[in-house]
Amino acid sequence: MQTTTSQQQEQSQVRLEAPALPASQTTLVALGLAGAFLLSYVTYQIADLQMAILLWVGLLLGFTLFHARFGFTSAFRRFMAVGNGEALRAHMLMLAAASTLFALIFSTGTGLFGTEPAGFVSPIGVSVVVGAFLFGIGMQLGSG
User: Which residue ranges traverse the bilayer (predicted)?
Assistant: First the structure.
């Protein structure tokens, strides 16, 4: 009985230790963080603190959704492959919550940092094409 308990304790201790990142991933993480800090510094210099804060909110939300595999393609793929529609329902719930919140924000005129929100429509230009291309690359790298 003693050996079984000691073996279980050894196994539980082994599970708690997290492996270190390989050198290649450590380099990529360091480069990514350096790029994010450089981008936030440039954003702060060109715009102001508000845009730098919003940049970090977007980066952190994107990082969270990427690691949660909360992508539209993966949700649809899971629904078609195994019939599991939980991810699609989560997307619909997120869309409903975002639409409701945006309707409240626009109707009350209350925005972040003392600004008044308004709908902004502009013609399609080069920035939309470049943004769509970058979005497509990000979707492929993020597996959907």
Answer: 28-47, 53-72, 93-114, 120-141
Run of H or E including 22:
none
Query: How far is it, in rounded angstroms, from Cα 61 to Cα 52?
Result: 14
Residue 75 neighbours by CB distance under 10 Å: 21
User: How many other CB atoms are found less than 10 A from the CB of residue 115?
Assistant: 10
Q: 142: Cβ–Cβ under 8 A, 6 or more apart, which residues?
A: 66, 71
Count of beta carbons in the 10 Å neighbourhood of residue 91: 16
Q: Which residue type sits at 124?
A: I
- What are the structure tokens assigned to 122, written together? 């502009």
What lies within 8 Å, CB to CB, of 66 at 6+ separation is 142
Q: What is the pLDDT of residues 115-132, one digit of tens each?
A: 788 777 778 889 889 999
